Fold this sequence. Notes:
The chain has one domain (20-267): Ferritin, core subunit, four-helix bundle (Ferritin), CATH 1.20.1260.10.
Amino acid sequence: xxxxxxxxxxxxxxxxxxxxxxxxxxxxxxxxxxxxxxxxxxxxxxxxxxxxxxxxxxxxxxxxxxxxxxxxxxxxxxxxxxxxxxxxxxxxxxxxxxxxxxxxxxxxxxxxxxxxxxxxxxxxxxxxxxxxxxxxxxxxxxxxxxxxxxxxxxxxxxxxxxxxxxxxxxxxxxxxxxxxxxxxxxxxxxxxxxxxxxxxxxxxxxxxxxxxxxxxxxxxxxxxxxxxxxxxxxxxxxxxxxxxxxxxxxxxxxxxxxxxxxxxxxxxxxxxxxxx
Length: 276
């Protein structure tokens, strides 16, 4: 891909321009638009932990305004600081996509009974494939701009979130892992939106702005998927309680992050410290 438009308009997660075919409980579904234009809502074939009947996957066009559930919002000024070193930011982004793909693969065979193993695995395999495609797209634009992947990478934000997982507690550990994944997805989407607005405006980088815009739209569905999967680990009421606890903690963790060219970096405060 040599031109700006080829990278900016690359249909992330969708090979070529062919409408994807999804299989749900043996039924083929033809989509008339690329998958990135839909919000995938994933439910498994069987019963949730609350006894409610459910299905594998349905999709709906992204027509409604997306409301972020986050306890804190990123101010526009954050983008100018994060983009002081755009190649470092893209390298950090590439590692996030790599970790997201690996996380989906690690969860591939972690379905909770009585969830349907086949549908659970199909769903997470699709997420892993999507994240790997995102990694490929980030690497293309990073390489085009003369950058390369850093050999070492740390993400203190994600590490702190993973420390919240109640390890060794069976389905509650699984619940926490799914909610951590959902938190990372939704915060990343919010940051992509801020980066896109800055690049398309004051930052004067239309290629990167459109790239973040399209990537954020594609990632939003993953947030919904992980929340829906969580209802198969524990009762929906427990999902809601733990989700609200972790939303509060996520805001505190983000506020403590250092500055830098990273997707989950902090923001300079008036007294020289860092805040979200």
